[in-house]
Amino acid sequence: MSKRIAVIVGSLRKDSINRKVARALQRLAPPALSLELIDIGGLALYNQDFDLEPPAPAYAAFREQIRQADGVIFVTPEHNRSMPAAMKNAVDIASRPPGHNAWSGKPGAVISASPGLQGGFGANHHLRQSLACLDVLCMAQPETYLSQAPKLFDEAGEPNEEGRKYLSRFIDAYAGWVERLTA
Ligand code: FNR
Questions:
Q1: What is the pLDDT of residues 136-173, one digit of tens each?
Q2: Rounded to two decimals, what is the model's pTM?
Q3: Contact 93, 62 (CB under 8 A)
Q4: Residue 116 CA: which ligand 1 atom is closest?
Q5: Does 3.50.50.60 match the CATH number of domain 3-182?
Q6: Which H helix or E strand runs over 146?
Q7: Which of 14, 43, 61, 98 lies most in the core, judged by the most C-beta atoms within 10 Å?
């Protein structure tokens, strides 16, 4: 049976390049993996009071989706050299309440995409810093920072040959990473 992989996309916008990356990974994934894009746009801004009061239903559903996953892939844009607020919000929500960190022990991977030349390097590594603290076991290689990312997709949002090369390399390596950690 294929492993269930939760995919978190850090952009909420309709024409997001990072969502195109996530959808392409979904299609290029080997049969060992089944990728599901998890919506984080409906998650209210995290408030520590929610650790004591019953959390909003959207929080419970999101945490459960992460708990049920065999692994998690983070697809992140870069906002001001870091991850977007929506991504950090999702990371924080599933890390709480204390003692119930839903991310813990999951085989993870981070991929970033930007129209700029640095491919979201800053966001990618800020995110890895939080994931280390949360016990996500992040794949180290291949590092994947997709620079000038719109050039990797055609008008229909499909990756071109170069795009497929980077994305296949990433998702095939991740399948191996999941197998190593869950065998
Ligand atoms: C950006 N963008 C950006 N790009 C980058 O490479 N480094 C950066 O630090 C920033 N900073 C930044 C801040 C804010 C507030 C916005 C809205 C945008 C540009 C960004 O890479 C571009 O909008 C991407 O298209 C965002 O990814 P999605 O939404 O297409 O997936």
A1: 999 999 999 999 999 999 999 999 999 999 999 999 99
A2: 0.98
A3: yes
A4: 6
A5: no
A6: strand 145-146
A7: 43
